[in-house]
Amino acid sequence: MSTTANGNDSKKFKGDIRGPGVPSRVIHIRKLPNDITETEVISLGLPFGDVTNLLMLKAKNQAFLEMSSEEAAQNMVGYYSTVMPVIRHHPVYVQFSNHKELKTDNSPNQEVRSSLLPSRAQAALRALSTSHVDPAVAAPSAVLRVVVENLVYPVTLDALCQIFSKFGTVLRIIVFTKNSQFQALLQYADGASAQAAKLSLDGQNIYNGCCTLRISFSKLTSLNVKYNNEKSRDFTRPDLPTGDSQPTMEHPAMATAFTPGIISAAPYAGATHAFPPAFTIQPAGLTVPALPGALASLSLPGATRLGFPSMSAGHCVLLVSNLNPERVTPHCLFILFGVYGDVMRVKILFNKKENALVQMSDSTQAQLAMSHLNGQRLHGKPLRITLSKHTNVQLPREGHEDQGLTKDYSNSPLHRFKKPGSKNYSNIFPPSATLHLSNIPPSVVEDDLKMLFSSSGAMVKAFKFFQKDHKMALIQMGSVEEAIESLIEFHNHDLGENHHLRVSFSKSSI
């Protein structure tokens, strides 16, 4: 069955060729290669959520991809606005469509008439979108043993972190060679993430036809890491020494620069987190864009020629753009970015108040904040976050008034990650509609907290105290955006009795 639009459809689609506009579940993809397959287009969306429909306009080198939720679509467009997707060496353009959904019937007055997907595309959707994780079955361990077979190209610790952090927070990782095989031990914050990663990645190739992942659960329940270098890393202990680090592999920059979607044999089945992966390296000055499409065709000779610069370890300043200048303050950015690391300084640009610089305490925290917050909505506008060319945020010189647009938070008591090994490291989650509240005094009851969180005009959908510990609770807001704004407003709120409320994003729902 043909999925090429007829002439009437083509006229209707002209309105879509514009910059990113009003968010929609339907994504418009342009400048596709002539011989593009349905599977390659679907794979562009899969890292961000389930794909529910597809319309190919092969004659116009375009496609429409419908995501399962507007949030997934927003994250996809946000991510690809900073990392240009490439399929078969062709950069492709991703933006929101004017259309709210792809219809599949043939009524004449329809907004978008799409043919029903051909059977091969339906099969591709089913195969690529189905999650195989059974939440009822507990994972034997949060630690995975990873063996990389057919090691044609070097694989680094950073590359493995990028790939595996798609499924949850990676706490620790150790790479080593045993029996002439490159191996790794990798510890997640929880067993469910380890199970999802094993089921989705076991047997996949990192590059086309080589570097095959063989994954099993380790008998270890935790990893003990003494040094942070290219052989071992403990993301909960940035203070660890580097030790006597071994010489780096021959082409570490090549592997570290790839985004997780470069797995070529099949994409991340079950990777439905609506956020770009943690620890994704976003190199500056790329001449060849990275390939997020999971089935993007990367030929082996091409891989050896890709000259990616690696990101310097000290790169910890983020450029945040598309802010709402009427409402944004240094304090609000300090609280929000402080969920993912310790914010040292914030500067809202004097002549362009939609832009700000946020300086984190190290590059890992900067990557973490960027990967979780890019594309999220704040005060009605999706955040755009990239690495800044600046290495630190300058404070205004004495006598120069900057209207309170630059703030130094280096000695703030509100830093969440000052203590080495802080449990906050294992509670880092993407923004969600459900917030985790802690440090609640005994006198504060459910109605008090519901009233507090609705006082800003937000909707409180549900609330639940922890059964064993009434110092903690979950509160579900009307949307992720409302939850983000509530976290900014009520983190550190004084509840009396010398208790200041602690607010973070939860992975649970009520």
UniProtKB/TrEMBL annotation:
List the SMART domains: RRM
* Key words, A-Z: Acetylation, Activator, Isopeptide bond, mRNA processing, mRNA splicing, Nucleus, Phosphoprotein, Repeat, Repressor, RNA-binding, Ubl conjugation
Annotated PROSITE patterns? RRM (PS50102)
Query: What GO CC annotations are associated with the protein?
Result: nucleus
Q: Where in the cell is it found?
A: Nucleus
The record, for Gene3D superfamilies, names:
3.30.70.330
Pfam families linked:
RRM_10, RRM_5, RRM_8
Q: Which GO terms describe its biological process?
A: mRNA processing; negative regulation of gene expression; negative regulation of mRNA metabolic process; RNA splicing
Report domain RRM positions. Answer: 25-99, 144-220, 316-390, 433-508
Q: Does the keyword Ligase apply?
A: no
MF (Gene Ontology): RNA binding
* Name this polypeptide is given: Polypyrimidine tract-binding protein 1
Q: Which organism is it from?
A: Lates calcarifer (Barramundi)
